[in-house]
Design brief:
Layout (H helix, E strand, L loop, with lengths): L15 H4 L17 H10 L1 H8 L5 H23 L6 H30 L6 H30 L5 H29 L6 H20 L18 H10 L1
Length: 244
């Protein structure tokens, strides 16, 4: 009798590109509940499909609330880092403006996102769209917290408002890219047949957030008043900052 070693069975696996096409909940780990704030942040970073699956469940309100609270907390912390450049009143004004501007931008763009989601054929309820936006905002602000130490070093070593504004803008655009990518993956799993409407919405969201930086100015520099008294387009405002 020959002494042969049993070969362990090989489980079928799909390449990473195919995993995004599998139905949500295929992996048992994706069905595990997300119990709290820290777990929600970790799931967004490590298991985005788990978040997308939980957002489609009837009890998703708790998860959405946790992500919105994380968004508020992270935006306030990053705003405090922004405020250290000028100090004084900007230590509270910058956090308030960044958190306020982020939530107002999301609320302004939410109706158009829901309409575009319907036009793309996605089977999305308004609650699903709110959940995806909450996940996008949380991921954006968590990434900004990751950039916060770098932003603090430059805020303490330079006195150029234009340079600091450029740094924060780059960090914001990088964070927005990853947040929007999460949003796009969510709509793929909701059955969106076309991405044209979503691309238009992304442009609208970027324009709104950029204009909000001017509507709530100054965020980086010192200010005599909490809000500006003059209306400006963000391009002209940035051009004036570069000429200083």
């Amino acid at each position: 009798m020959n002494d042969t070693k049993a070969t362990p069975p090989v489980l079928p696996t799909a390449p990473p590109s195919e995993m995004t096409k599998l139905p949500l909940g295929t992996n048992p780990d994706e069905q595990a509940a997300i119990p709290g704030l820290v777990a929600a942040i970790e799931a967004l970073l490590r298991q985005p499909r788990r978040v997308l699956f939980q957002l489609r469940r009837p009890e998703s309100g708790t998860l959405i609330g946790a992500m919105l609270f994380a968004t508020l907390l992270c935006s306030l912390i990053y705003g405090l880092i922004v405020g250290t450049f000028s100090g004084r009143e900007q230590l509270w004004a910058a956090p308030a403006k960044i958190a306020l501007g982020l939530f107002i931008s999301a609320l302004i763009c939410l109706p158009s996102l829901y309409i575009f989601s319907c036009l793309t054929g996605a089977e999305a309820r308004l609650a699903d769209v709110c959940g995806l936006v909450a996940g996008m905002l949380t991921l954006m602000t968590v990434l900004l917290i990751g950039f916060a130490p770098v932003a603090w070093v430059f805020s303490q070593s330079t006195d150029s408002v234009a340079a600091m504004g450029a740094f924060h803008l780059v960090f914001w655009l990088i964070s927005t890219y990853f947040g929007v990518r999460f949003l796009c993956h969510g709509f793929v799993h909701l059955g969106a047949r076309s991405g044209g409407g979503l691309k238009v919405w992304i442009i609208i969201f970027l324009l709104v957030t950029l204009q909000m930086t001017t509507a709530l100015r100054p965020i980086v520099d010192k200010a005599d008043t909490f809000l500006p008294t003059e209306k400006k387009f963000f391009v002209s405002h940035w051009a004036e900052c570069l000429r200083k």
